[in-house]
UniProtKB/TrEMBL annotation:
Region annotation (Phosphopantothenate--cysteine ligase) ranges: 15-226
Catalysed transformations (reactions): N-[(R)-4-phosphopantothenoyl]-L-cysteine + H(+) = (R)-4'-phosphopantetheine + CO2; (R)-4'-phosphopantothenate + L-cysteine + CTP = N-[(R)-4-phosphopantothenoyl]-L-cysteine + CMP + diphosphate + H(+)
Cofactor binding note from Swiss-Prot or TrEMBL: Binds 1 FMN per subunit.
Annotated organism of origin: Siminovitchia acidinfaciens
Residues of the full protein shown: 175 to 400 of 401
Cofactor needs: FMN; Mg(2+)
Domain DNA/pantothenate metabolism flavoprotein C-terminal: from-to ranges: 11-219
Record's protein name: Coenzyme A biosynthesis bifunctional protein CoaBC
Residue ranges that the Swiss-Prot or TrEMBL entry lists as coiled coil: none
Amino acid sequence: KNHFFAQRLFDGKTFLITAGPTKEKVDPVRYFTNRSSGKMGYALAEQAALMGAEVILVSGTDSLPAPNGVKVVHVESAADMFDAVMTHANEADVIVKSAAVADYRPKQVHASKMKKQSGDLVIELERTKDILFELGKKKANQFLVGFAAETDNMEEYAKGKLVKKNADMIVANNVAAEGAGFAGDTNIVTIFHKDHSSVQLPLLSKQETARKILHEISEKLGGDHH
Ligand code: CTP
Ligand code: CA
């Protein structure tokens, strides 16, 4: 890996990046989570820092080392992530929401360990707040990047999220495809811009995917100043 010639495209810019899954408590010994590893978000944080950005990484995983020069804020639930993101949102020039945020959480969190009973168990779930949607509502001069994890109809769903969440860019990945998605070290993404242009990237390492995504962001940021 040669990072020696990383272009400092983001000198003076602050990035707020979220990564990894969230964990929603059921009781003191159990939670609901998802398959996100956090690797894509950590790669974005690492590469943005190498390109000169100040980076705050709000992370739902403890399993990855903090990238060089990146401030990591660890969170557990979607509600924790919401609070951490809102605390730092105003400092950020660019917000990248690569975290896989739970859409639902148990309506009731049991204070003591649930004991098994005979028969089935039903756990009622309630919706969490959509962090990206809330950011999009109050966005002023920020550049807002969302992810879309899909298994089908990727383009349609990704473009829908771009509009609904008032994002500037959506990075879509087919999490069911070979070489793409949550666990591995590679990804295959398509970038959808607000101006209706799109860029389809080939199978790349998550570090290289991150660099390409960041170059797209840099180009769009630069465009605002001309
Ligand atoms: N997101 C968020 N807060 C949530 C749910 C999602 O900020 N409570 C963000 C994700 O971080 C991602 C984008 O919204 O950047 C899209 O997430 P995704 O799960 O693909 O889409 P949803 O809008 O949740 O729709 P669905 O899961 O039904 O496809
Ligand atoms: Ca979701």
